[in-house]
Amino acid sequence: MAYLMGVDLGTSGTKTALFDETGRTVASCTADYPLDQPHNGWAEQDPEAWWRAACETIRGVLDQSGVSPNEVKGVGLSGQMHGLVMLDGEGRVLRPSILWCDGRTGRECQEITELVGKERLIQLTANPALTGFTAGKILWVRRHEPELYAKCRHILLPKDYLRYKLTGEFATEVSDASGMNLLDVAHRCWSREVLDKLEIDPALLGKLYESTDLTGTVTAAASAATGLAPGTPVAGGAGDNAAAAVGTGVVRSGRAFVTLGTSGVVFAHADQVSIDPGGRVHTFCAAVPGAWTVMSCTLAAGLSLQWFRNQFCAEERRQAEAEGVDPYDIMTREASQSPIGANRLLYLPYLMGERSPLLDEKARGAFIGLSAMHGRGDLIRAVMEGVSYSQRQCLDILREMGVAPDHIMACGGGGRSPFWRQMLADVLDCTVQTAKASQEGPALGAAILAGVCAGVYPDVPTACDAIIHPDQSCAPNDGDSTRYEPFYRLYTEVYPALKDSFSKLYNL
Question: How far is CA 475 from CA 26, 126, 230, 398, 421, in A?
Answer without folding.
Answer: 32, 33, 48, 20, 10
